[in-house]
Amino acid sequence: MNPTPFQTPRDLLRYAVSRFNAAKLFFGHGSAEAFDEAVYLILHTLKLPLDRLDPFLDARLLPDEVTQVLVVIERRAVDRVPAAYITNEAWLGTYPFYVDERVLVPRSFIAELIPEFFSPWVEDPDAVQNVLELCTGSGCLAIMLADAFGNSVVDAVDISTDALAVAQMNIRKYELDGRVNPIASDLYQNVPFKKYDVIVSNPPYVNSASMGKLPPEYLVEPQIALAGGEDGMDLVRLIVAGAAERLTPDGILIVEIGNEYDYAEAAFGHLGLTWLTTSSGDNAVFLLRADQLQ
């Protein structure tokens, strides 16, 4: 007989939502609210289909199953660990990836643009041969890029060898060895000198003032992957400056800068940035053509 007051997923769901709301958790790593996060964590812990809650809501749970879920709920509520680190799984679009504390939890608006092949700036996706992703982290964007541009080789760069170890796990998971190449490099430093049709980056861009206001969930993540200097543009300046000699004549550079639109315009507005539309609006991702960088 179960000695706890929790008998079913419905009981645990009610408790988890209450715990998460009372703890005033921050939901910026995939879920929008306490209910969604609780559902995901409960279903994942019980190894149930993530898209089917209703059939299992009133199923009787074994005592050890209840205990497993309670441990997860407390870790999320008390330690403020992002759900993705608890489950070692994060989704970007329709793609699941392995993640742990060595990498940021994937959350890039660029992922929304990849299925559209960056149209109309890329006229023929099949003609794209070389793609470079700077600050790859878990390798998620590099893998999505390789999947979208089927004739391409993607060089996936990060300064963190810990992050690249995670990226390699995801590359193997998607059987993209040889098509996605992890490279340990400080931006362009160790990158093979060749011309790229597309350069993509979701770099550290959080400005110094904002770094001091990040919620506890973000402080669990690698800070090197977040901090972008006084105005958030330290690495972005280097990325833009080095892109000219790395792009093909028709090549494009795409960079995500999150909430730093004003700082990006101040730094690069004279180049004539094209702001791409994503679910966040028209101010989180910019594009530059090779001819604009000359």
Summary, kept brief:
With 294 residues, the protein is an alpha/beta fold.
How would you describe the overall organization of this protein?
- By secondary structure, the chain is of the alpha/beta class.
- It folds into two domains: about 10-85, Helicase, Ruva Protein, domain 3, CATH 1.10.8; about 100-294, Vaccinia Virus protein VP39 (Rossmann fold).
- It contains twelve helices and nine strands.
- It has helices spanning about 10-20, 35-45, 65-80, 85, 110-115, 140-150, 160-175, 210, 215-220, 235-245, 260-270, 290-294; strands spanning about 90, 95, 130-135, 155-160, 180-185, 195-200, 245-255, 275, 285-290.
- A seven-stranded mixed beta sheet has the order 5-4-3-6-7-9-8, sandwiched between helices.
- Helix 1 packs across helix 2 and helix 2 packs across helix 3.
What's the arrangement of secondary structure elements?
Layout: H1 9-22, H2 34-45, H3 63-78, H4 83-87, E1 90-92, E2 95-97, H5 110-113, E3 130-134, H6 140-148, E4 153-158, H7 161-173, E5 180-184, E6 196-201, H8 208-211, H9 216-219, H10 234-243, E7 247-256, H11 261-268, E8 274-275, E9 285-289, H12 290-293
Parallel strand pairs: 3-4, 3-6, 4-5, 6-7
Antiparallel strand pairs: 1-2, 7-9, 8-9
